[in-house]
Structures
1.
Amino acid sequence: MQPTTEQRLWMYRHMVLSRYLEERIESLYMEGKTPVFNMAKGPIPGEMHLSNGQEPCAVGVCAHLDPEDIVTATHRPHHIAVAKGVDLDAMVAEIFGKATGLAGGRGGHMHLFDAKVNFSCSGIIGEGLGPAVGAALSRKLQGKPGVAVAFMGEGAANQGAFHEALNLAAVWQLPVVFVIEDNAWGISVAKQASTAVPRNDRRAAAYDMPGVHVADNDVEAIFSAAGEAIARVREGQGPTLIEIETARLAGHFMGDGEDYRPKGEKEGLKQRDPIPRYRKQLLDAGLLDDASDDTLVEGAHARVEAAIRFAQDSEFLPPEAALEAVFV
Amino acid sequence: MTTTTSAGTRKLTIARAMAEATAQEMRNDPRVFVMGEDIGPLGGVFGNTRGLYDEFGPERVRDTPISETAFIGAAVGAASDGMRPIVELMFVDFFGVCMDAIYNLMAKNTYFSGGKVKVPMVLMTSTGGGYSDAGQHSQCLYGTFAHLPGMKVVAPSNAYDAKGLMTAAIHDDNPVVFMYHKSLQGMGWLGTEKGATVPVPEESYTLEIGKAAVVREGHDVTLVSLAAGVHHCLRAAQALEDEGFSAEVVDLRSLVPLDRETLRASVAKTGRLIVVDEDYHSFGVSGEIIASVVEHDHACLKAAPRRVAYPDIPIPFAPTMEQWALPNADKIVDAFHQMMLS
Amino acid sequence: MSIVITVPDDLWEGDSEGVITAWLVNDGAEVAQGDLVAEVMVEKAQYEIEAPSTGVLSITKQEDEVVEKGETIASLES
């Protein structure tokens, strides 16, 4: 399955936007945290898991999704939220903890919920799978259109929830696609040290569903694999498991010294940064030139800056609002 | 590290105290080994297994997959088969994915075997918030674990207690849940309570599980807490002293078994009780403490007991909301003032 | 004789500043060569400072103070 020119440029633009968002968050996150790195300080306190390098997974999959389709994401959710069309202003405001945020600041960066586009995420590994299966079941029972996609990291494939959810989706033939973003590291533990199979797509065989592997963080290969899997679930042909070889260009979280990585690994990954690679691919194909690239990049940056300004200019909820929204 | 620093002057963070206790027991007892996520070369996300991998290697200091159900269940099996595993649940909030192994196996196998099967394991887990990590990474859940019979529960407030309790937990033939509060660990990036880093003897020692400590004597009110809450109480006691009141502070140290004798003796002396708990207000530690005193002797109280606990809400991310909801010394002082007015 | 304790130049990579998160020995106490005396944090990484010789510790940089590589943080009198 080949993307159209419009889809190619959409994917590129959303990768650029997502990356710039992470770069801006990175610098704002460090405000108030130097020279003393205290997570509680600065305009964005708490843990921060940046998605730099994993953008192809988000855009290659979400290019096939409509707002009515369901996505569950992980503790590292920004790129997926951006590609799924989560309200950027409200998302950034939530990351800042502001009243105008998706949850008025109650959730923060690991707990983003935008019901308008059927997006949610969780800070607990593997816990997005069950809800994706259930949302797919709901659509099937209600006879409503829409499919579900559960994103997870490769470490999540070693959780019981992974195996239970895959089996359930397969036995009930539900419209759900499972997407593993394999960035090779679960915090400090390498995939090969924690996982009995070299490729998790092989685990699909255990649930008699198609298992697809995508190598090298390749945007269009992801687009193609996801497109076929999503077309199958839309036709009621049951779930698919996809594992994508991607790259975590940042630490597990901000402040991670990453001493566990072999020397030179990070530099090598950065040389294979998927965004410049895709830019070159589009330039070579004549779908982009320097002038149109500049315009696209400037537009994406401006959108991010506007969202950050919106967040910065927003107020915090009064502290007592902590007591609200426990129940509807 | 050498062992020549003059006695009583060497201080440790709780993280180092836990690692030192574990290392000493691993040297003494080949049955002791450690499993968990990122506890190997990284030394634990919260520093409490630092140095163990270098000294004991990958056989005895085992990084696990993100598979808590499997490795905590495996610890139960290994413990029942004669080993003495120490396992880490990185954040206590993650208990949801593996609670069956904890409360249906670890906590019940001894009972279901009529006392014939021992489960000598330590489950160590981080608790607490205050640094905007939101409601899936900031809970204490002391009451949740203490509520379930069959496992001992400890929660130290300083490095001296942490080392003694860790050693005792490893020696214990029963499962022990060792709950360490992130703000006390001595990891600067979590903001560190200075009062938790205290002199710690280099030689191995144990602290009896199930014994509270009166960490400050007084006669006007008893402030009871555990872990980080003890430091809030000590600050409140200092503030009350400046107002001319004398507060006694009881550090529970263990929740199971609960040292009701020490509690009751203190309240019998002061006649007033304030319980401070970073865990949720309802159905938890604070209610149990008050009940333990009142059901024993309601006449010992000169005023209705009070609690300064976390409201019954998931922990919010925004620092404005989270800090407002957390217990602190000012809230304890306020609670005392209200008690004296009523 | 007085010997200074400095932050070793190779304690961490790069030129970042660190902060002393804990003195693990009280001011005025006697320490032995090789004893762990302080922790320095750079972002989330913690590094250890050992006593370069035996002596009585005199702290010049307190907890929470920012330090650079090569900076003197204490001295040892023997």
2.
Amino acid sequence: MSASDSPSLIELRDAAIAPPSAPGVLVLEHLNWRIAAGDFWVIGGLQSSGKSLLLHCAAGLLPPAQGSLRLFDQEIAELSREDAFPLLLRVGLVFENDARLFTRLTLAENVALPLRYHFNANDADATSRVQPVLEATGLLDFAGLSAGDVPRTLRQRVGLARALVLQPDVLLIDNPLARLGRSDAWWWRDFLKRLNTGHALTAGKPVAIVVTTDDLRAWSPTGRQFALLDGRGLVCFASRDELETSAHALLPELFADARVAV
Amino acid sequence: MRVPLWAQPLPRAYLDFVGRVLLRTLETIHGIGAFSLITLGVAVTKFNRAPRVLRPMIREQVYVAGLRLLPFVTFLGFALGFVVIGQTVALLNRVSVGNLAGTVMVTVVVRELGPLFTALLVLARVGTANVIELGNSRARGEVEALEALNIDPVHYLVVPRVFGMAIAITSLTVYLIITALLSGYLFVFLQDVPLSPGDYFAQLATALVWEDFALLAGKTAIFGSIIALVTCYEGLSRPLRLEDVAGASTRAVLLSVVGCVFVDTLFIIVYLVM
């Protein structure tokens, strides 16, 4: 599914995922999924199909209930916390909707927090690294706003900036186009495409992208690899053509659900 | 023959109730104990981690739980001085045992009332707010967001509160004691008690031993840590819905008071041994 010669960034092997609130209930099972450098994955699924859980598991936030998670070719369960830490820092996760911003901090402080915490950056260092990220994501004018006062349509963009500031190798973004208008949806697709092919923010280094969606129409021109969360498993498609010609039962629903204009 | 009332078994419902309360208490003690050990472990292993993030947060806690309460502590200190110290010294002089004033003051104000009053004040003003703030953070998913950024939530949310409250309560207690002792003498002076300032403060200086300072610092720092740990535990142990807030706050206050009184009792034993 992904470029087989590219190095593997994230790999789930026969994994099963259970939500933290009900550890005995397997929501997803028998997951075999590999994200390689340069991939642009679009994961389609209906509401409550486990899209967020899949991303949380791939980011190392939620250990698989069964099977294994490998980050950058290393089995994460076998590593100590100290050894896993640098690998986890290379994976960026953007949460759904309000992106779980820290409401006591300003927008700029939210974005600078990982830098200040992990690298003990002083004000000048943090500002010099945060400013270009805010500029690229169109958030510079809102930098001083409390995170709670940031317009709803921009909150996930702040989450993206917060993840980008650590220059991750792979970005996992949960349903970024949900409840967005045409221009915001266009911005997301265009920005992620440029990140995927090499953006000035990452010094031209391509970032592997994974987005989840409940509307495949919005992403089918942008994504390169596609998968559907079908029942309790992941069905992967090798290309856009294969997706569009597939007779999978979920596809009519995922293509017809046009909440975001293309 | 009829079985007397005292010998009859308790109705099953009572036993159920007592059993439930006992089990819940043990569960809570277990939870807070484990949470405290985790916090201690994190504080030790990550002592020098992210100082540019943690230090301002500790300073903020000292401000919130300490500096911001100064006006009220001043009022409380004056009240304590007028109500307890002034009257006690006047009474001791009336029964011609004025030379005991220093010992009584040190025992009552320095060892007992000062630390306990301050801890209860901070608990009432800051502790409950702490529960609500952390409960809301948890409900908004900020804890998971910290984990996604590989930031240890205990290190970021709990450790600054523990250090901040420990410093704040220790400092506030010293301030309360000084205010109470000074205002106490003011009351003595206003009542025309034949006790010169020199005699009053000399008695205090004689009654105080170096262990009092060490134990006062230790006791107040432990009070601060208990309040911070219990309120953080109640706030973070589960996402709080609006209807859970009142219960969690009440539980945090109750457990903190019990914890502080328990520690105070242990310190009384130390004082008695001294």
3.
Amino acid sequence: MSRRAVLAGVGHTEFGKLAGRSAWHLEAAAAAAAVADAGVQPRDIDGLLTDPGPAQGVLDGITPHFLRLGAQLGLDPDYAGSEILGGAGSVAIVERAVLAVEAGLCELCLCVYGDSALSAPGSFAYGRGDEAAFGFFGAVGLHALAARRHMHRYGTRTEHLGEVAIAARSHAARTPHAQKRQPIEMQDYLASEFLVEPLRKLDCCLVSDGAAAVLVTTEERAGDLRCPPIRILGHAQAHSLSTYASSDHFDRLPAARCGPKALGRAGLAPADIDVALLYDCFTIVVLLQLEDYGFCKKGESGAFVEGGRIAPGGSLPVNPSGGLLAEGYGGGMLHVIEAVRQLRGEAGERQVAGAETALVSGHGLGMNTHATLVLGS
Amino acid sequence: MPAAKPPLPQPDVLTTSFWNACRRRVLEISVCGDCGHRFLPPGPCCPRCWSPRLASQESSGRGRVDSFAVYRRTYHPGMPAPYVVALVELDEGPRLISNIVGCAPEEVAIDRRVEVRFEAADGFSLPRFALGHGKESAKGGNS
């Protein structure tokens, strides 16, 4: 019997302001939900991988997050660790779990993202080393540089970014647990204040308290579980660590390298993807990924998103649960979970009809890290 | 209450020479002693050939705007908005994050020529840039 890894149980907390519950409380609740979804017991877990959220103050990589969470969950797993890859972390720990399970290092690996960024804020506007002396604060400034270059090179308009924000809210209106469910129109988007021009407040992801967890196991073991397994068709990572030394750092995401690898392993082309779960910390990142994954040609993402193509009912629904822009900041793990729900056919009002394939991405740090999963029902 | 100060550079083993050069109004770039590659930020080796034989060179201080962003919201009380953060590509090749100063944000555009302008900041000298003359000309920008 195959040791091929599959995604089994999924679970998450509410997302939004959850005062009085620490990130540890939220992560424990998400873990319990994932275990219940799969119908296994906590003692069955033999792998633990964590992606601590940005406000947990562990981006220095020193605090062993998995150690504290593992102690709280009473685990003595065969395999454990944390990934510090920024917004690519959640997809990356799921990928690492797949590798670990397929290598026989563990059999039931719990992957957890969590944060209490709204109730315990602090690290979102962090400076970037000496660049803070020039006022270069936060991820928003960095992505504003990318947006400005895209507008300059390809004639992309502020309304194209707006289409991404509007689509996210349209999706979230169909998502009961989403943090921002009120739909917006273009006039609302254009009235949104600039934070770092050309990016407006509505171009930016939400800040959330919440946690999400996914269980990775073998195909064989999944046969005993109560939830239908979701297959891993392909996975890959790529990173751009040279940053400014690379002349196209802001123009082309590492997705252009790991996307074809992950899709190639799956034997699929971009056009074969039924639903895309694209990491959407800022609207511009969705536009860049549409191009770099090959859903449209380079420079044409602005035109691509016109007419609601990525909105509910569009030909390529992107982030049907609302994503980081509207569902809540789930570090990318909510993207994985939404892919699982879509492929199980459990997404209710927002179900993409006949969804059999999904692409999930994570993108992080200074536009440095990227990870891709291609999933199938 | 005293006025808030902006964040300052924190020179370390790799960047002390760069910031000391700035105090002499010199924009210093690293040069590989083996392959000749010019780069920023300073590092322990050449990022192209990994040679540890490094030297430094004085940049002309001239370059072009590779991209820019206009901070409209104040994130730090010592850096009141609006101000322009730019990715500047020096004529010698390296790129660095800095500010475009001495003009309205609306005057900044990608590919505009810029020239370094050192500004004192609490014991440091920060290499900011001002718009120069001309566009896309390697000889432009001398104002």
